[in-house]
Amino acid sequence: MNLKKVSDGLHKLNTSQIIALGFAGVIFVGGLILRMPFCSAPGQAVTFPDAVFTAATSVCVTGLSTVVMAVQWSPIGKAVILCLIQIGGIGLIALANMIFISLRRKISLKNRRIIKESYNLDEMGGVVAVVCNVVKCVFLAEGIGAVLYAFCFVPEFGIKKGLVNAIFLAVSAFCNAGIDLFGETSLSVYVSNPLVNITTIGLIIVSGLGFIVWWDLWDKFRKVLRKELSPSRVFRVLRLQSKLVLTMTGILVFSGAFLVFIFESGNPSTLKGAPLGTKLMASFFQSVTTRTAGFYTMDQSLLSTPTVIISLLWMFIGGSPMGTAGGVKTTTIAVLILSIAAYLQGKKDVEVYGRRIRESYLRSAMVVAGTSVLILFTMTVLLSAVMPGVDLADVLYEITSAVATVGLSRGLTPQLNVAGKWIVILTMYLGRIGPLTLGTAVVMRVRNRPGSTTHLGEEDIMIG
Amino acid sequence: MNLKKVSDGLHKLNTSQIIALGFAGVIFVGGLILRMPFCSAPGQAVTFPDAVFTAATSVCVTGLSTVVMAVQWSPIGKAVILCLIQIGGIGLIALANMIFISLRRKISLKNRRIIKESYNLDEMGGVVAVVCNVVKCVFLAEGIGAVLYAFCFVPEFGIKKGLVNAIFLAVSAFCNAGIDLFGETSLSVYVSNPLVNITTIGLIIVSGLGFIVWWDLWDKFRKVLRKELSPSRVFRVLRLQSKLVLTMTGILVFSGAFLVFIFESGNPSTLKGAPLGTKLMASFFQSVTTRTAGFYTMDQSLLSTPTVIISLLWMFIGGSPMGTAGGVKTTTIAVLILSIAAYLQGKKDVEVYGRRIRESYLRSAMVVAGTSVLILFTMTVLLSAVMPGVDLADVLYEITSAVATVGLSRGLTPQLNVAGKWIVILTMYLGRIGPLTLGTAVVMRVRNRPGSTTHLGEEDIMIG
Ligand SMILES: [K+]
Ligand SMILES: [K+]
């Protein structure tokens, strides 16, 4: 009946408010739990700001950390963190509805609407199936990742610690959380290990595509298997969202890796003198991890200045909508670039892949990008104001990383004072809910205009 | 007859191309002239890149400098630089047409169209008068500035050198050029001098408003003098452009000064220990100079990190259209902010001061801001790539300053290698012609829609 009361209260809120309050609630409760003595390793104490920071970085799947995860937390604490990452990754709403399903309750229309708005689905009927599929897909991908990692970690750490590390890393990578149990240097020790590199890059890219693209690809893949579709036509029949996301992801991953390779190959602090294979893997890893994963194989404070600038931009852009990645999102940037190109060519309509992009998407994209820049600017000023003598590059990297839920740092996080910790917590929170709440407030339907045969078709995409 | 040939050739180009080629031509010719031995001071030689750099920084009214102006150049060289600043400030087109006028030639329809497009004028008939008025206004303001400066500089340097410094500084300040003859530290020695501070701040702000606003204010001022208008109604009857520009200028100048005051008052490298008056003047000066003037009274490399971030943003925003200031312009930012606010409030129309802002202005604003960010990003990566080990803050400050034609530097300009010099020259050039050429390509008329009495009126503004 208490649950009934809460449920009634929730019905008075709109979707965005529920999401915002939900995230804040989980962060607060998670912080309280992590504050308990049994969550810290023997001999380790934790302050309240550090506990909340850890909860926030887990739920927001950011990965910045004021403490060394492997040293600070007891096995129970690590399990709590893993749960918080999974909650953050799958999404509060999907999870809340999963609980309802498992309790065999009927999902209320209100709850369906929330999922529908969060996941931009067209059919109300498919909501339960969608939530189940999300969770199934996540566990499947994480399982595959854990098995692959185990081939490396079990020989190194033994069965128990090896499996724990493999599972934790797989969940953390797929949820784009960037948190690991290896100590202070993330995956630096595996910079030349192809299995760890390829598995991590794979998990990050796949989860970064977003579920809609994943299902779209799976749908077409099944049609190819059933010989209903020729493989050469797969890209052409994909949804516009999938085409945009795959194109942008390809461009960002490869051009990013190319630029990092150019600028780090001769950097004596990072890759100079390394074998070509390591140089290539490390470049790809850096390009992919900036797309809001947050692991690293190169110390971020030793990167050359051009690589830092590229990393800042790639972090800001981030991944694709409907996944676990953060940032302003690939589709947002695609719409902005296409719109600028169309304008400079004197075209009134913005077109791509034979589809016309509605003016309203352009405005959404502008709002998402503009709001993100505003948060970035404000938080950078605030953080540098409370941290006297802080370096511009360090503070810009830290805040960009927090707002796009990336988790990369040039070493500022462990040095944060109490005010700095709360500012970064707030930034991670705003960065995580920002695109989501905007997204739910912003979803717009695109109708094929009746009787217009000369105009190009229009199709739904997700912005922000 | 040679002039005739050139004139015929020019008629085949569109306005943007003429402006782009015109600026490039003046920079190149200016560089060749400054390369001549008689332009350098006795015992001083100048390389070709430094000569072109000086011509570019003068014509683009930027103010970055690889050489110490006061030491490097002979009196003839300084006169050439003064001419280049004046050409850049008044604008090539207005000047070219002035020459035609003084030659008593009839201005061709083609030329009128160019001026009309550059200055966004509604009546073709008024073109000659407009050009004359631009030039008159510039000389009047510069004259007043020079007289005020003379009260300070003549007692200090004697009649001749005092007058030269006063005239040079007045022209440089009104044209937002940021070039001076005082040596390596700009106006630092006058940090506590109210006359120099107030005169410089006044010249920068007035010229930064743009001619349209100036004329609008002058028109209303005359009506008040003639008792046709009550002083309290002046703001209400101003053009929308003027209202936006004045509001944005007020917000930026005062909030910038406030923030700089907060963050520098306790900075031992700059204002800590200074009297309150100096603190206030220096804060206002820093706020105003970032709006693309380029003089400084505080060493930019000693500013605290929050002040650096604020200065970067203020530089990027810059001044207002139709003046000598650079940056993406106040009206561009105003339209973007208003549009985001309207969107988040769920309003379809963007409204301000009882006027509706057309969707097309929003797109122009987005294109101007987006293109500027793209140039900024590309040039920052390029410059940091050719300057190994350069600090992110230094390179970001340098390129932002160049692209917005500001002229402030954290000390990187004199250290630039040859490749770096050419990159900054290109950035200054793109920054100067970018908004102009975009502007001419982008001018759009806003009609009052017939028969719509319920809709708010629409009015022309200038973007970028
Ligand atoms: K992350
Ligand atoms: K300037």
From TrEMBL, chains A, B:
Recorded topology in the membrane: Multi-pass membrane protein
Gene Ontology MF annotations: monoatomic cation transmembrane transporter activity
InterPro entries linked: Cat_transpt
Chief location category: membrane
Record key words, sorted: Cell membrane, Ion transport, Membrane, Transmembrane, Transmembrane helix, Transport
GO BP: metal ion transport
Membrane spanning stretches: 18-39, 51-73, 79-103, 124-151, 163-183, 195-215, 244-263, 325-344, 365-387, 422-444
Localization per record: Cell membrane
Gene Ontology cellular component list: plasma membrane
One Pfam family matching this protein: TrkH
Name of this chain's protein: Potassium/sodium uptake protein NtpJ
Organism whose genome encodes this protein: Blautia luti
